[in-house]
Amino acid sequence: MSGPNVWTRSRERMRRFPDLLAQCSTEAAAYGKCVVATTTGKQELKKDLCAKEFEGLKACFVSAAKRGMK
Amino acid sequence: MNNLVSSRAVGGACLLCRRGAAVSARVTQQRPHPPPLTRLSSRLLSSRQGGTMNVFDRNMKRRQKKWASSLQEHNKYDYLRDEVGSRVADRIYDIARTFPLALDVGCGKSHIAEHLSKEVVERLFLTDISDGLLRQKKESEMPTHCVMADEEFLPFRENTFDLVVSSLSMHWINDLPGALRQIHQVLKPDGVFIGAMVGGETLYELRCSLQLAELEREGGFSPHISPYTAVTDLGNLLGQAGFNMLTVDVDEIQVHYPGMLDVMCDLQGMGESNCVWNRKSLLHRDTILAAAAVYKEMYGNEDGSVPATFEILYMIGWKPHESQVKPAKRGSATASFADLSKISQSEASIKTDNP
Hints:
The structure holds 2 protein chains of 2 kinds. Chain A is mainly alpha-helical. Chain A has helices at 6-15, 17-23, 25-40, 51-69.
């Protein structure tokens, strides 16, 4: 395999993904519930239907990533 | 998707034209932004006569397998192939025979042979599209010969093998009816084919989560999990290829992972990444995050792990031979179906009923 390059670096970053997601389990659950609710109810799934929940999840994820860097 | 369109036998000349076409297709793929129309036409050109059956990018699959075989810890992704390989070997042991010459189509690192003894298979040919995998083949008792060949074009003479096996590779074949026909061709009469492939509802958790997440984040979705053969079609496929005395059964293997990313990493490590022609070249970061959340919420277990389901379809078919048992002639029955209910009675009373 070749030395470190953009692929190995992004791969390295992806390795932290499960950890970071685990730190945001409540936000992830809220977003998940919002999306999953559309599979049973009458509400059709559209783009940005759960934008608010996703913003919450992403904000938490990004801050967790920043904390990890320090 | 591998539907029941009848296929033509593939000759040597076609193999050449296919090779050339595949190369030209790759060149067009490498262009930065090919206009959609040219891309479509190149895709059609690269297939043989039946353009509808060119679903998978075989060149990409070869590269993915090569990449997977170059990983340092490539062995840790072998768990599924080892398991299914042992189950295929089990089915070989069920046949009370010694097979002088056998062929493993799409052997990977030879996951079946390590479970076989030389009393069952005396000599084994291994074929795979990736030389990287063949070089790492596992030890086995019987002598083996490696041939790097595409499963879609078997380079063997007719009536060569007593047994053909295949484990977890046929789900990437474009022309499944044609491939089965070729397997039928290289088998000797009274030879048997034992295969296993993923199909049915395999990876439905990942498929659904990605679809939901892409729909919500991007407003549309593209295929990330390849189309699979349904178990109900398998009997017809084998029958059309000329096999008889068919056996088809389904096994469900559920693997528990820490999260969605681990499912995807492991699939990549197995060389099982998506290689459908119309795949999307990247998955947006937001979508991955969204899909991981949906996966966990929808399918997650109480302990925080997530399941991934693999539906393995096993098929057994025999090449016809006179010695094989035939169905009895019409009207040759000596008992009536109407008397079926009396079978539970003692044998003596049945004898008096039907002298």
